[in-house]
Amino acid sequence: MKLRYLQIASSICITCCHLGMSHPALASQTYSKMLTKEYVVTKKNVNGTIVDKDGNPLIGVTIFEKGTDNGCITDFNGQYQLSLSNRDAVIVISYVGYKTQELKGDQLVEKIVLEEDAVALDELVVVGYAVQKKKELTGSTSSLKASDKKLSVTTSLDQMMQGNLSGVNITNASGMPGGAVRVSIRGVGSINGSNEPLFVIDGIPVSNSDNSGVNGRFGGSVQNPLSMLNPNDIESIDVLKDAAATAIYGSRATNGVVMVTTKRGKKGQRTTVNLSASYGLQSLPKEIEMADSDLYLTVRNEAVNNYNTQNNLKPGDNLYKTLEVNPRPGQPDTDWIDLITHDQAAVQNYEVSVSSGSEKTRFYSSLGYFDQEGIILTNRFRRYSLRTNVDHDISNAFQTGVSIALSKTINNRVPNDNVGNGIFTRSIEQRPFDVPFKEDGRYMIGGVDIPRHNGIQVLNEQKSKNEWYRVLANAYLTIKLLEGLEYKLSLSGDIRYSNDYLKLTKDHPYGSPKGEITDYRSMMQNYLIDNTLTYTKQIKDFNFTALGGYSMQEINTDASSIVGKDFPSSQFDYINAAGRINSASTTGGKNRLISTFFRLNMGYADRYLFTFSIRADGSSKFADGNQWGTFPSVSGAWRISNESFFPKDGIISDLKLRASWGMTGNQEGIGNYDSRSLANGGHNYNGQDGIAITTLANPDLKWEKSDQTNIGLDLSLFNDRVTVGMDYFIKNTKDLLYDRPLHTTTGFSSITQNIGSMRNTGFEFNVESHNIMNDRFSWDTQFNISTIKNKLTSLIDEKPIPVGNHVLQVGQPIGSFYMYKMDGIYQDNQEVPEKLYAKGVRAGDIKYADKDNDGDLTPADKEIVGKPLPDFFGGLTNRFRYGNFDLTIFNTFSVGNDVYATGMGGIDAVGHNNYGMRKDIAANRWTGPGTNNSIPRAMISTHNTQASTYLLHDGSYFKFKDVTLGYTLPSNLTQKLNISNMRVYLSAQNLWTISSYPGYDPEVSYSVNNSKTMGEDAMTVPQLRTFVCGFNLTF
């Protein structure tokens, strides 16, 4: 018997024929019989375009065959192609914001128009213990959805936020992998306390502090705890800014609240698998041109001759300086930065996620791996992440769910802080003719006559690694007790374990003669129980929602450290091989927070909205009488566009006016026991062991409190094609926490006190616009700008408090730069005041402003000369689509802030020391009257190296932060490949910076966690320029 296959249109006929059944008529008769007996196996290929009511293509619409996992999504032209199992198959078409449609295969038409779902189109915002429709909000919020950033490349939560949310300013500490950032909402909120917002991840309040311990002592870069989160898991970010939005979190909300919601499965969702991969190369964004050996020697020896001549020094005198010579004449100069860095450092990211949902059970699960080489040779950061979110409807009345996220990071650190061994800064300072090795192969310690290490030696003779393990988990149970009445129990935990390891061999410039190893381990356990009861009721045009809750939180910290020295060989990596234990210690702490809270939302006729909330927090950090704080808020909104008198056919489609007032608090940044006296053992007197008081009690210590008033306007134009948001706020903070220095006779260095108050005022503006929308081309724009003014309004004793190159002074912004003001260059000796001339100041030296007109240079001449905070900042995003191509251009900007180039003090000193020199400074120095009025002469003189505006620069910038070009494969091709969607892309990050700042990058702050000393550039590793290629696959 033979099998014969016959295809007619989309039907495949299988006939069984004996050898003699070859006659056409007989074959036709057999075919007819088989049709009657339904032996025909049929299938149907369907394709078309899905659009909205205006004919615009809808991208990413899900189309699948009901009861199967057979499906696809529309491409950038709204087109799809799907092969159905049979003609009678039912197709389900779903898209967020539109009603789901079910059609039989024979009902499909070439163009399908989806109908908007008025309820689903209401954007939801997470507001703390609940979600609200955006149009019903009375507080000030900014939101970012995952879909807004899906066309850009992001590797961390803070990178997603930067420049995309009004009122949120993000500053990077450096370009080190996993490096710390400063996130501030509506300006600086504290002097000594934390200025970080409260991060709430899937309902879990988490700390954004780095609990590792080796960084400060050994100069490793501070790690960003948010770098442990996989940004591809994030569904939305909602930033709560005013007191009406944040007061529900009470004592932790002064600096704002960032609500992070991760992805979850959805009801009726077919099983979807997403696979993404990317690979990129990173490099320094620019080069700082340094003087070559000839120019260096010319300037340095000019400084030496000026010094000897001016001081009448001759060979043999104690203070006589000898001229420098190049020990390697005719040899190429050494590029020290090139020696310690990669030309291009690799960065790669891989992730797979699966999501699905039935009517009862939904889940989302992901697995991610991120690997980033640092630009410095031994630096590398890796992140492993696993997340699973499951929700299940036990019945109509009971719902439960669990979220668990596991992550591990490995950070091979390098010294980067300015504590004497900052490898990047020290390498820039090396002289051009110095080399890393002597002729015999031994290390050249900083060259011929300068006692600095060389970077190659540090990298070879040091092993520094930090490992972080984190478990972030939440389980909940929701019970619908009555109609409109719901109880929710939530149990959460955030457990972090950190292990810092640092090995310095005997050949390390800062190590012990026989080597040393430090092992530091710490654990933080954060547990939380939330109980909430919510009641919702609608009575005709009146509706209200009441929320009441009780919360308990406990945070435990434990740490241990051990230092071993005198190892028999550099090959040993563990402390048990140490000849002696140099030190060992353990420490721990605990704090608790107990809270009750209530919120009432009311609305009438969708026009008048009102919200009241109050929270009472009790903290174990404070002494009796100050442990409890109460934080109320009240707000209202008027939807003017819903009034009968408002024109319905005008250009304004929605208009809402908002107003709010409330109080929030802050207890971060102080120790668990700062209100109490602490004693510690290990002390001795006259040979006797004993106990000593180590911390001075302050029973009057209390919360920092802020009251904030906000007025806002939400506006939609041209049928929601343009949306605008504006807010003006006044935020007053009192009882500022500060470690006030004490006189040495007290036996204590400082005491934590409430010392003053400050005010932040600001204006925020954001606009989103769909500029062009048609079936072939679209152009969308998002723009936000914020301006914030900060000033201290009171201080204890009303006296200024100098802090390094900064000052705390009433009436001035926090952290204002306080130093001498450069008034040009003395062009001849007659200009120099007598007192300064007597001190050795001559023509060519810096002229400082004589504030007190005494003809001398004293600390009394210091003045406020700038501020680290910008006048305004923001972001601009333009997204273009043409056919299957998409282009995203993302810009950030900051204007009006100053940067003090601390790390350039050595290389801009014009021969004062034997450091390498910036070519521009060396070549354009003052050499005679009228030659220069901004760069001093070459001279060994401490007069020209005073902290002054000589090193203070404008930190304004405009950045092309991200430019991404993508291409989505057409549906007819993805159908052949048996995939739903595929997009490939190329991305450039930190592509171009427009700025007058002479350093690597104006977007830097050495003291990211210290508001008193912001805006200083220690010349650490800058943010890197990155080129990435990748793809996203959906099955």
TrEMBL record:
Residues 1-27 form the signal peptide. Gene3D superfamilies: Carboxypeptidase-like, regulatory domain, TonB-dependent receptor, beta-barrel domain, TonB-dependent receptor, plug domain. Pfam families: CarbopepD_reg_2, Plug, TonB_dep_Rec_b-barrel. Keywords: Cell outer membrane, Membrane, Receptor, Signal, TonB box, Transmembrane, Transmembrane beta strand, Transport. It is found in: Cell outer membrane. Residues 133-257 form the TonB-dependent receptor plug domain. It comes from the Bacteria. Residues 430-991 form the TonB-dependent receptor-like beta-barrel domain. The keyword Methyltransferase does not apply. One of its GO terms (cellular component) is cell outer membrane. It is a multi-pass membrane protein. InterPro entries: Beta-barrel_TonB (IPR000531), Beta-barrel_TonB_sf (IPR036942), CarboxyPept-like_regulatory (IPR008969), Plug_dom (IPR012910), Plug_dom_sf (IPR037066), TonB-dep_OMP_SusC/RagA (IPR023996), TonB-dep_OMP_SusC/RagA_CS (IPR023997), TonB-dep_rcpt-like (IPR039426). Belongs to the TonB-dependent receptor family. This is TonB-dependent receptor. It comes from Bacteroides ovatus.
